[in-house]
Amino acid sequence: MNKESQMRAAINQKLIEMGERERLKELLRAKLIECGWRDQVKALCKEVIKEKGLENVTVEDLVAGVTPKGRALVPDSVKKELLQRIKAFLAQHST
Amino acid sequence: MLALNTLKLDQWKRLCPRLTCRLSPFTRSGGACSVVSSGNSRRARCEAEDGVSTQIAGLEAKSCICHLCGAHLNRLHSCLHCVFFGCFSKKHIHEHAKSKRHNLAIDLLYGGIYCFVCQDYIYDKDMEQIAKEEQRKAWKLQGIGEKYSMWEPTKRELELLRHNPKRRKITANCTIGLRGLINLGNTCFMNCIVQALTHTPLLRDFFLSDRHKCEMQSNSCLVCEMSQLFQEFYSGHRSPHIPFRLLHLVWTHARHLAGYEQQDAHEFLIAALDVLHRHCKDDNGKKANNPNHCSCIIDQIFTGGLQSDVTCQVCHGVSTTIDPFWDISLDLPGSSTPFWPLSPGSDGSVVNGDGHPSGATTLTDCLRRFTRPEHLGSSAKIKCSGCHSYQESTKQLTMKRLPIVACFHLKRFEHSAKLRRKITTYVSFPLELDMTPFMASSKESRMNGQYLQPVDSLNNDNKYSLFAVVNHQGTLESGHYTTFIRQHKDQWFKCDDAIITKASIKDVLDSEGYLLFYHKQFLEYE
């Protein structure tokens, strides 16, 4: 593992241990619903299902088809807010 | 995580009909999934105590990582045949499945079961039930509490839906729920309140889902009549409704409102809530004698807690009481009690961004005045338990607990010894209101020296939206009540007895305002 992924793992571990990761997930979930992202992604999923047909579509089809567009649709403001929150948390709990 | 040890062997085989390999390690322990439970057992066992949650979180942080690459993310899956964690995105769990021929794995995020033979997630009702239950317990343990889960019909409901195939679709512009009310002789004071109540979202949902189970013997249950009223309003009929039964019941249960003369809409609101609350209480017979712990729908929606702090000016000891309230009555400038100036330190303007004495009076001005510390004067000394004698004191009101629907009553009708008149001062009110500055908790922060609370966008608890405005036109002797109600976001209608017309937001906000109904924006589950 290179230094970056080591750091990522360490931060992740800290977030999980303090229960902050779950809280951040909840926050993110709420923000993504509020800004309409979830509805947009739902629409994208429906498109994939229509394309492949309800009987044949697999979860992988949806993941592959929707993930890149879904990631791009996340508003910058939401990303900023989450980042701020993580930074604040790390500042508070740095060793 | 999953309490997979609750599954029996035959249920395992049922999971995927194409799976033929036997899950032999499990038969030794009588069908229980002991292998997986040993991997996740600490999590599965420790559900009860809160202090253990950090232990569990620590274990999760260290043990739930991909055995091949150490990643925690990347859609981590747990093998259901042995203790192996592998990420999905990098296909590490796929490698494991192929090499060991362990064809079932579980997604650690959502509890979905993946079958490598079918190459897709499979759905089993029992597994989903377990996953749901365990997820709920995990959330509770983490302090997240209950979360919204979608409605799923019961068998009976499915039956009813099949027998009644007719459906009504609610579109963004539909006018369902809008219906005029015939004036039966100065009954606009009742009509205006009925319009506000039938458009209170939670109340509407309660009645339209038939939640009232009547236990009153007679036919005079007002809650049943309300239920009927909602059915009438949401029936789709466009002709005005004639509320003669409602009027009769109101005369029966609130004698002081009987008769054909004009009454006060605010008085009617309080009387109606009171009768509904009393008739609802009969549903939970056991709680009938305890007014502070009623769980009827009226209390759930309308009841808040008002905190009154009396501070002794000598020893600074504080005596606190909390009283329930259904509405907040606010004094207005122009009444015989002085409105301005407000005392310093009770600052609401930062959050709601409104003006000061030189502009129009705002609702937040009235709220600031309502929650300001008030000197009780030398003629009203209170017995202080700290000083053991009568001392001068200050009294301050703040909101301890906000109701889901907050009703503000602007005291426009003055009935003092000297005069009876209507105060027509314009008070501007907002579409969205943040009650944070008026909360008891905010006052405590201010007293601890934390002035000027930063606007916390993450805390949505105290945000309210306007959904109904009752207006009075005319004089104290003869006047008329009308109501603006919000049908959809930014779509308002004016209800003038039998006549319903479209209204603009400007019409609503420019109106004088007598009763203002606000609804909490974000609701939580208990």
TrEMBL record, chain A:
Gene: LOC113059218
A GO BP entry: chromatin organization
Species whose genome carries this gene: Carassius auratus
Stated role: Involved in mRNA export coupled transcription activation by association with both the TREX-2 and the SAGA complexes. The transcription regulatory histone acetylation (HAT) complex SAGA is a multiprotein complex that activates transcription by remodeling chromatin and mediating histone acetylation and deubiquitination. Within the SAGA complex, participates in a subcomplex that specifically deubiquitinates histones. The SAGA complex is recruited to specific gene promoters by activators, where it is required for transcription.
Main location: nucleus
Protein name in the entry: Transcription and mRNA export factor ENY2
Family the UniProt entry places it in: Belongs to the ENY2 family.
Coiled-coil blocks: none
Gene3D superfamilies registered for this protein in UniProt: 1.10.246.140
TrEMBL record, chain B:
GO BP annotations, alphabetical order: protein deubiquitination; proteolysis
Keyword set includes RNA-binding: no
InterPro entries according to UniProt: Papain-like_cys_pep_sf, Peptidase_C19_UCH, Ub_carboxyl-term_hydrolase, USP, USP_CS, Znf_RING/FYVE/PHD, Znf_UBP
Keywords: Hydrolase, Metal-binding, Nucleus, Protease, Thiol protease, Transcription, Transcription regulation, Ubl conjugation pathway, Zinc, Zinc-finger
Chief localisation class: nucleus
GO cellular component: nucleus
E.C. no: 3.4.19.12
Gene3D superfamilies (alphabetical): Cysteine proteinases (3.90.70.10), Zinc/RING finger domain, C3HC4 (zinc finger) (3.30.40.10)
Compartment list: Nucleus
GO molecular function terms noted in the UniProt entry: cysteine-type deubiquitinase activity; zinc ion binding
Zinc in keyword set: yes
Domain UBP-type: 44-141
Known catalytic reactions: Thiol-dependent hydrolysis of ester, thioester, amide, peptide and isopeptide bonds formed by the C-terminal Gly of ubiquitin (a 76-residue protein attached to proteins as an intracellular targeting signal)
Protein name: Ubiquitin carboxyl-terminal hydrolase
The species this protein was found in: Carassius auratus
